[in-house]
Amino acid sequence: MENSSRFFANKECEYYPCHKMSGDINCLFCYCPLYNTECPGNYKMVKKGENEIKSCIDCVFPHNPDNYDKVISLLKRSKANKKM
Predict the structure, then answer these.
(1) Number of structural domains, the chain?
(2) Which pLDDT belongs to residue 69?
């Protein structure tokens, strides 16, 4: 897949590939923009000290090029909900 406004693969990054997945990895969302929203990916809640935090280490949802429109839609919905 070619780099574009919807897809970017930074194959020169020291962390690339950051996840084990087949096909292209979309680095456009390197740090998950859905971290503070309800994400449809396979995140887990893990214990850190006395708290639980969201771990996205096994989640590839935002890195799948086919999910670009879904990520943008979720971000728009999250932004609209914050305005209410």
Answers:
(1) 1
(2) 95
What CA–CA distance (Å, rounded) separates 69 from 55? 23
Q: Considering the chain, what is the average pLDDT of its residues? A: 87
pLDDT digits (tens, 9 = 90+) for 41-71: 999 999 999 999 998 888 989 989 999 999 9
Is the pLDDT at 84 greater than 70? The verdict is no
The β-bridge partners of 44 are: 55
Three-state secondary structure along the chain? CCCCCCCCCCCCCCCCCCCCCCCCCCHHHCCCCCCCCCCCCCCEEEEECCEEEEECCCCCHHHCHHHHHHHHHHHHHHHHHHHC
Q: Which domain holds residue 42?
A: 1-84
Return d(Cα 42, Cα 29) in angstroms, integer.
16
4, 54, 44: which is closest to 24 by C-alpha? Answer: 4
